[in-house]
Write a structure and sequence with these properties.
Distance between the termini: 42 Å
Helix content: 40-55%
Largest sheet: 5 strands, mixed
Structural class: alpha/beta
Number of helices: 10
Strand content: 15-25%
Number of strands: 8
Number of domains: 2
Radius of gyration: 20 Å
Shape: globular
Strand order of the largest sheet: 4-5-6-8-7
């Protein structure tokens, strides 16, 4: 159920179901069989611990499975932790979350401190709806772009610079310019942030999309929250009608803060060739 909720925010981020197999300690592991991820580990009388371990082992094996070989190892580990924690929080499994932190996360951070920095960025992005819809979407597409390669050092390097761009997006302060695009050979996109309250005219965003099309930019993310979603939708409809970009994916969803819930909008536009 939790994996279905994650997948509703992306496309095949966790493409397989999961089966549990109880084994002796020496037989622990995960593998794919009959379109299911089989998680093998020794049983415990602590159900919260069992759930935490199964969730982490499952995400480590299946999250953007076909693209994992192209992702920087530390970035990939942080993504697995972020999604495992997200899945446990869906049902408020706080005891299992504590087990996951103690048994898996803290030992990994002790060995690789940068995991914590990436995880902080990813969880901030998740609170804004961008972890699954941008970060994991970009990572999941690497296999389609590079499917014939066993490895690609260029892509591994770009996943690091990509996360720096995502850190700037997570930390962006309204009214202060920040470079949230990524212009790589493998990961290449621009962002349109509908960032000004009360601006009803979408023309500035439409004109920007025209310039990006002229420059050959293959992908645009359009992001908006609150009342700005109205302007964002109007801009996307106009860009689509002009035959510049097509809507590849679109999400209308709710976010929450201390004041309550509010609308949010994310759309991926893909360039239409002339």
């Amino acid at each position: 159920m939790a994996s279905k909720r994650v997948n509703s925010e992306g496309v095949d981020l966790l493409p397989h179901g999961v089966n549990i197999k109880w084994v002796e300690t020496r037989d622990r592991g995960t593998f794919l069989k009959d379109d299911k991820i089989v998680v093998c580990f020794e049983p415990s009388i602590n159900e919260e611990r069992n759930l935490a371990r199964a969730t982490m082992l499952y995400t480590s094996e299946d999250l953007v499975r076909e693209s994992q070989r192209f992702v920087n190892r530390t970035v990939m580990k942080a993504a697995c932790f972020a999604v495992a924690r997200k899945m446990l929080m869906f049902e408020r499994k706080l005891s299992s979350l504590s087990c996951l932190n103690e048994e898996f996360l803290q030992p990994e951070i002790a060995q690789h401190p940068s995991i914590e920095q990436y995880l902080t960025t990813m969880e901030k992005l998740d609170s804004e709806g961008h972890l699954t819809r941008i970060v994991l979407n970009e990572l999941s597409e690497l296999n389609a772009k590079l499917f014939s390669s066993l490895s690609e050092p260029r892509a591994v390097r770009e996943t690091v610079s990509f996360m720096l761009a995502m850190k700037r997006l997570a930390e962006k302060v309204e009214g202060v310019d920040a470079e949230t695009d990524h212009r790589g050979q493998v990961i290449d996109f621009r962002t349109i942030l509908i960032a000004r309250e009360g601006v009803k005219d979408p023309n500035r965003y439409i004109n920007y999309a025209k310039r990006l099309w002229d420059e050959g930019v293959p992908k645009i993310y359009v992001l908006a929250q609150g009342d700005r979603t109205i302007t964002a939708i109007a801009a996307v409809l106009a860009i689509k009608a002009m035959g510049l970009y097509r809507v590849e994916k679109e999400w209308k969803y709710k976010l929450n803060d201390k004041q309550g819930s509010f609308n949010a909008y994310t759309t991926i536009l893909s360039k239409i060739q002339a």
